[in-house]
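Lab notebook, design round three. We kept the backbone fixed and only want residue identities now. Task for the bench partner: fill in a sequence for the structure below.
Input structure tokens:
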């Protein structure tokens, strides 16, 4: 059984969590440019000095939020390729996992803030793209394994992965991010998932 942290550590961690939660609320409601450390401190019920003790500035705080966002992006362990299972069933599970993430309100709203902030900072935008690519490595790994097994005719697993991701995001991510459309309902998710997987398999098998 792990040792329990002493009370000051717990208090410090609680303050840090309160600051991050307040920052998330501020970024979601006001946007990146309008959010200030003063506003974050006020929302967190902490002094500005306390906020700066945890984070040297708004950029570092925003980076920590993005780190947590991408760290939880998969929403579960990556699904491994299984030789004994139909390809379609496995791909539908992978796509369903992706759709659960894309339908998460907190993820969508923070992604919207992150993308808006990235417009004003090419470096931040490149970091976001890199992190999103990292979270999608599970599908690339699965496609590569299926190709090695001879069940998919794929020369470039990364390219094929981006193709399938693009089919999904074209309906379940970008319209919600850029046009503020509502998330897909279960019937729409099913339609998007099945049509994308069937198109993918029709080309690569």
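Proposed sequence:
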């Amino acid at each position: 059984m792990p040792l329990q942290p002493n009370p000051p550590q717990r208090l410090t961690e609680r303050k840090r969590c309160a600051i991050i939660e307040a920052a998330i609320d501020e970024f979601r409601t006001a946007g990146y440019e309008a959010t200030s450390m003063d506003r974050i401190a006020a929302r967190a019920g902490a002094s500005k000095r306390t906020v700066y003790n945890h984070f040297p500035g708004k950029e570092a705080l925003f980076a920590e939020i993005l780190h947590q966002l991408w760290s939880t992006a998969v929403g579960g362990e990556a699904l491994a390729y299984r030789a004994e299972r139909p390809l379609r069933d496995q791909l539908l599970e992978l796509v369903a996992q992706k759709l659960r993430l894309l339908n998460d309100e907190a993820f969508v709203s923070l992604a919207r803030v992150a993308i808006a902030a990235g417009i004003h900072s090419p470096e931040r935008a490149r970091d976001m793209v890199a992190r999103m690519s990292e979270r999608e490595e599970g599908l690339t790994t699965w496609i590569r394994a299926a190709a090695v097994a001879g069940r998919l005719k794929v020369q470039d697993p990364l390219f094929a992965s981006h193709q399938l991701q693009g089919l999904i995001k074209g309906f379940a991510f970008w319209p919600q991010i850029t046009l503020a459309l509502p998330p897909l309902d279960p019937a729409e998710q099913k339609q998007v998932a099945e049509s994308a997987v069937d198109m993918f398999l029709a080309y690569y098998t």
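Keep this in mind before ordering anything: Residues 72-204 form a domain with the Tetracycline Repressor; domain 2 fold (CATH 1.10.357.10).
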